[in-house]
Amino acid sequence: MAATTSLRTLLEDNTIPADPALIRSEAGAIRCLACGHRCSVKPGRAGVCRVRFNRDGELRVPAGYVAGVQVDPIEKKPFYHAFPGRNALSFGMLGCDFHRGYCQNWVTSQALRDDKAASLPRFGNAEDVINTALENDVRVMVSTYNEPLITSEWAVEIFKLARTTASPAALSPTATARPKC
Predict the structure, then answer these.
(1) Residues 13, 10: Cα–Cα separation, whole Å
(2) Do residue 35 and residue 84 come from a single domain?
């Protein structure tokens, strides 16, 4: 009989430590500051997004995969006026800090919450995402589809490489960011 791995385990194996600027230590927990929920995440538990979790006192965050990648007209983005007529490489991951039944990206955003929202990640590195953009002559990178604030560390890794190709980069969040407290 073949062994199976749950999606949660697969994703937990593809993480990096959270950016120190996005966490605060608390008694017996870590406060995650990535999105507006400001979750207090105890060891062995995950935040409301289900992708940022506390492993032995370290907040781990998603990296090394995309759940969706697509070349889109920039006009589909909320900053269409910045680069009219250009295409953008849109990429997103799994998970979200909201649970909205009407979400157009429900299959990826709810994959860890709802078994009917099955979506598998495509593993790779930041160079793979940049190469996809270059192969499609796309010079604008956008982290989108799910809530990009909860996967910002991975987006920053990609954006740093995009900068070396003179490609502008942006997050397209659901407007849940809050000022640093």
Answers:
(1) 5
(2) no
Residue 159, Cβ density class (10 Å: 0-12 exposed, 13-18 middle, ≥19 buried): buried
Residue 39 counted as domain residue:
yes
Residues 171, 148 contacting (CB under 8 angstroms): yes
* Tens-place pLDDT, residues 119-162: 788 999 999 999 999 999 998 999 988 888 889 999 999 999 99
Kindly indicate the confidence band of residue 117, based on its pLDDT and cuts at 50, 70 and 90.
low
The token pair that represents 122 in the structure block = 């495509």
Q: How far apart are the first and last CA of the chain?
A: 51
Number of domains the chain contains: 2
Question: What is the reported pTM?
Answer: 0.87
Closest CA to 81 of 170, 166, 161, 155: 170
User: How many Å apart are CA 50 and CA 52, to the nearest integer?
Assistant: 6
